[in-house]
Amino acid sequence: QLQLLESGPGLVKPSETLSLTCSVSGGSLSSRNYYWGWVRQPPGQGLEWIGSVYYSGSAHYTPTLKSRVTISVDTSKNQFSLKLTSVTAADTAIYYCARLNYPTSSGEHFQHWGQGSLVTVS
Amino acid sequence: QSVLTQPPSVSGAPGQRVTISCTGSSSNIGTGYDVHWYQQLPGTAPKLLIYANNNRPSGVPDRFSGSKSGTSASLAITGLRAEDEADYYCQSYDSSLSRYVFGTGTTITVL
Predict the structure, then answer these.
(1) Which residues of B touch A (CB under 8 A)?
(2) What pLDDT digit, counting tens, does each position of A56-105 carry?
(3) Side-by-side strand order, sheet with B72-77
């Protein structure tokens, strides 16, 4: 059974870099059938896609965060990571990692989600 | 700022049928991108409920169904149960924004 688990600091200072890791178990990050991504949810608000990455390392990001975001993979550890630079209070959110289906012409969805990790910028 | 609009709240009595609308535009739902639905129980992560407009992942009861027409989509829940109280989000892709987009979210309350 696929499980995703986010880990990282729960508190980050303004202007510093937010770093989170998603550990994948019960499945292989090296599978060619899926993409892996990050979604965040500010407290009491809706969901926002941050970016997604393929096992090869090819990544794409939401345009609004593209200048500050890097998503990378470590297939040897079956993990992928999120780095968000120059954070502000507006980046305070629950950060979820997720697995997406392989891209199709009609779009992708988030099949499995981690439990989420609350990151507070203060 | 969400580009997929949902009603903030919907309520119904146990056993009733309720629907949630998801209104998009010609750059997302209307251009042929699939709509997917997620259920988020209080204090938990979202869970995939419906994918590709009207498909249920294994384990999702057939009380949940989805449909899509034009620039909108809908999620229907029949035989409403207390355990269905949650937030529900639609999701698609927007070609103008070049990103995945989520709906504004709808809270289902069972009376």
Answers:
(1) 2, 32-34, 36, 38, 44-48, 51-52, 57, 89, 91-93, 97-105
(2) 999 999 999 999 999 999 999 999 999 999 999 999 999 999 999 988 88
(3) B18-23, B72-77, B64-69
